[in-house]
Protein 1
Amino acid sequence: MQTLPTLTTSNTTAEQPTFETTIKRRKTRPVKVGNVTIGGGYPVVVQSMINEDTLDIDGSVAAIRRLHEIGCEIVRVTVPSMAHAKVMAEIKQKLIKTYQDVPIVADVHHNGMKIALEVAKHIEKVRINPGLYVFEKPNSNRSEYTKAEFDDIGEKIRETLEPLVVSLRDQGKAMRIGVNHGSLAERMLFTYGDTPEGMVESALEFIRICESLDFRNLVISMKASRVPVMVAAYRLMAKRLDELGMDYPLHLGVTEAGDGEYGRIKSTAGIATLLADGIGDTIRVSLTESPEKEIPVCYSILQALGLRKTMVEYVACPSCGRTLFNLEEVLHKVREATKHLTGLDIAVMGCIVNGPGEMADADYGYVGKTPGYISLYRGREEIRKVPEAQGVEELINLIKTDGRWVEP
């Protein structure tokens, strides 16, 4: 008889193989952004970006507050001009006066040294794009970059970046080096092609300049609109950083993911794949929708992977011919009654076959055991059987009995 070979791992005993069921995150240095820490073993940080014009002070303050109140821990704003950079001082002051001090990161593009230097006075983190920070005018007749030409632009980048690095270093603030696949500099495209390698080398050039100036409060991103490119770029970035002894945290995101169900699936495919590899310290889901709709997707990704517990985890079977009640309707009722709770696992199972066994890890179970009745469980233990019409009410009473209920 043909048999499969015995599976072994590095930590396997002779009697029983063991497998990791929790994600082991890549070790990174902690980078402070105001009162939030990215990396260093801290929980994965959730970010988003307001879409208000920051010259609208009241609108921007309100938008930042809306995001922060629903769990966005760092908020990004765009500063396309010196006027936008200067007004950030008023936005910060008004936030502190009317709400609280929210960590803010400012987006700077296109020859933005003066803008970056101004905005760095007022907020906790500056994001720059290596492909745009020193603009290289494309030459349609060019066939290659010589080493001298490549190095000459590299020196211009250093001259332009150094004042910002020194300012952030001396203030104890942070920088995100945010590479985008769609905006690689021309010399990187000629040298490495439109590839993840070109993205990584673009970031490393800026990292080395920062390190030469003794500045290491860095977060790195490798965003792309195509998931396979994004995943490959981040994996290569993590590999190269580890090889070079650089322990910088990574900011994950699929840029321009779109909207609706597909936008959420696309973002999840990229972000969750990397997080499951242990790669990633902060995330943003980029949707073509109101920013508030990005935050629930972030937390759902983190909760599904066991990286953060911010809401109730619902375990429910898909329903079949054995189901003894309208599973979709009952799950909706249970969710509406308990969705404000945190840290609980609640199972809703349609029959005894999928009941106690499949929901073994749940804190509470709601199981159709006999027609017209519901069996309520605490863990694996059946506590009571109640009429179906009273099922949700009695589930709440059981949670209250255990002292784990809070009012909505």
Protein 2
Amino acid sequence: MTVIKLRRCADGKTISDKEKDSMKALSPVDQLFLWLEKRQQPMHVGGLQLFQFPDDAGPKYVSELAEQMREYSSPVAPFNQKLTRRLGQYYWTEDKQFDIDHHLRHEALPKPGRIRELLSLVSAEHSNLMDRERPLWEAHLIEGIRGRQFALYTKIHHSVVDGISAMRLGMRALSADPEERNLPPVWAYQPKKRGRSLPSNPVDVASSLARLTAGISKQAATVPGLAREIYKVSQKAKKDENYVSIFQAPDTILNKSITGSRRFAAQSYSLSRLKVLAKAFGCTVNTVVLAMCGHALREYLISQHALPDEPLIAMVPMSLRQDDSAEGNQIGMILANLGTHICDPGNRIRVIHNSIEEAKQRFAQMSPEEILNFTALTMAPTGLNLLTGLAPKWRAFNVVISNVPGPKEPLYWNGARLKGMYPVSIALDRIALNITLTSYVDQLEFGLIACRRTLPSMQRLLDYLEQSIRELEIAAGIK
């Protein structure tokens, strides 16, 4: 006869030794995302995938697809894991009462079924906190979109995956073969040993802040060199108005307290157009993207009568890897001058380019530990405010702008072509706007998430982004 021993926990519940062995403690980083979560600050990431119907799709195609997806009611990890708390520590444990109907939602847009209605639905769903008594993910299959299209919006808590992992998960169930069928949904997909992969790169400020606490013993030895570098930065900032140092970011409406309501905006832009601009200005596509964002933010703040005299500063996660190795994180958080105080688009992109190149040159002279420490100092004010709210005027940057490389080939889901994939990230208190983009084939897919009340009519940024491309083309003599 098997004897099951029970242990009583601080909350009065009992667990068996067998259950205790199956529990997996969350790392301090993952627990941080649970501690940071408040009603006005949901801590989940998401993605919106837009698909074109297969040619042979019937009138009930999406309904039938929903029924097929619902049959996969036994998810694999991490989709079958729910939170439990013992003695102040969070653990993952398997949900023995998993209910697929709670996690999979089949919805239809109201008429006329434009992209506007789709983005409104995503905005509303991304505003909602998830039930911590269940696995922390949802999938929304959405029909009723004009032009024989349907969408899949998924969200998953940041304690389960980071942004780049979420993108990998979203791509698991896709195929490069338009003829392949019977592909399971992402929560039932058994990962293969080798598959489609993306480069390691943080895509949001929350992940970056949490990871900065690692490797403290190695970092201690960098303090003398770091002190010299900080002094050099502060001195140079006094002489060059376009040089970015710590605490230079101005006070803007982007950096006010936020509510729990979100607005999501998304748009695709031609990657080939941006490559032509990058060549014309002698810079990278990333620099062109920052110039687009600088123009868009300048125009938006002017429309709100809120443009500061000083330039906005963007925090830009940037890979510093100079080899083909895959080990370790070689990431720097660059503070980029967005040139929002400059009217001329040609001058603005040159200021942005110089700002980025100076940051790269600075990091090129540092060891990985020094880069991590320098980045930690840069992010410290934001981390302090997120955790305590004690120093709202200590500000290193105004906005987060992340660019994550994506798939270079067209992808399909059971014959439906993926037309676009848009990141849905996290808005944080006093960082009310997050701009995340990813590449897909010959497109750059922008996903903007913001506090609806703090930044009214934020969707106008999409028009200003397109406007910025035209103005850069004129400045470069292309048009």
Protein 3
Amino acid sequence: MSSLKEITASPTYNPNRVLDAIIEKLQLKNDAALSRALEVAPPVISKIRHNTLPIGATILIRMHEISDFSIRELRELMAH
């Protein structure tokens, strides 16, 4: 199993897939609504989207808690 560090360093890493999947699953309007759901500041979502901040373990767990996606599903969304 790949580590989060390996996934985020991969050339196929695309954080937008996981963010968009959570927005769709929770029927949120936008990234601002996602930041509220994840209880993070809006710039955190922007930095993740623009690939300047990797998705770390803490936010990955929070994504799992609010979306009911398994950690494995979230990691697969990030890696493809």
Protein 4
Amino acid sequence: MNQDFAPEVTAVLDGVRDLLPTLRERAEEGERLRVIPDASIKELEETGFFRLLQPKRYGGIEADPVAFYTAVRDIASADGATGWVASVVGVHPWQVALFADEAQQAVWGDDQSVRLSSSYAPTGKAVITEGGFKLSGKWSFSSGSDHCSWVLLGGLVFNVEGQVVDFRTFMVPREKYQVVDVWNVVGLRGTGSNDIVVEETFIPEAFTLSMGETGQCKGPGQAVNTSDLYKLPFHSIFTSTIATPIIGMAKGAYAEHVEMQQKRVRAAYLGEKASLDPFAAVRIARASSEIDAAWALLINNLREEQAHVAKGEQIPLELRLRVRRDQVLGTARSIEAIDTLFEASGGRALAEGTYLQRAWRDAHAGRVHAANDPERALQMYGGHQFGHKVDPGMY
């Protein structure tokens, strides 16, 4: 697949793949620390991974997003937690590119390797004031926050009368927020998805982005970052960012399961070789089909959106809803595949240190992310077929 990408992008993907054995070896260390080891972040940075979606104006690559998702899938196939953090931290340069250039300059002007974490649920409060907003509150689940010096936070905007008038993303520098260590969980332990606390602080207008605007595939940063990359729908890019690591986990679980079964002798079945069990072969075939389908639909939908952008056309709401439909079902397919493989792997798959048991825990942890809520996404798609009104800003 590398031949489909520019040489600079191919070099990043090759570098990522060379790292996979090392990332896999560090998975237990990440679980113990409850954060991705610094060495893994440093080595991913050295491959150019975190610059894939960053504007060229600030040392980025402006790569095909399919290349980004390919790298994320591969990283997650070695370690789900590292893949998750790589995905959510690696996608943020794409959104920063939509902010006013003043904000981009503040992030990357002195150091083009600066990273950002996020927490988009509007659990904070912003009040309009002269020149910007007063922001305060607490946000949860900011994956990779220990490795970042800025954060992107979702917040409802209130006017002076106390009425909600907007929903914005606020870009906040490290000196204005606190990371609170609360991440004690059974899955995705290594992601360090801790809380962010902001005491009331002033955020200039240029350091905010209206979700109403991004819902229309717009942002002030498009005036200086003119690539088609930055004209794709926010929700298509970000929800795919959440689904892809889980597809990668399924890919890694599949590889380990096949390897285990080739060596496994089933004592309960009179020493039968698992590789000769026809039912085991059927499970492998079904699981591989689900994983392939999840990936193929994700990429095909993105390619269709890119084709519309390349022609200067508005992306149809039908397609944007289909992206969400197939994204949540892609997550479901991947988890179903992992469940099938895990259940068929025997007691040794339960051992600490195996990829399979960790992928099982990590994938189910990733499933509870709001972006993977299947009923809401499917209801919107199905309702649209019946003529129900749908807010395109949410898709």
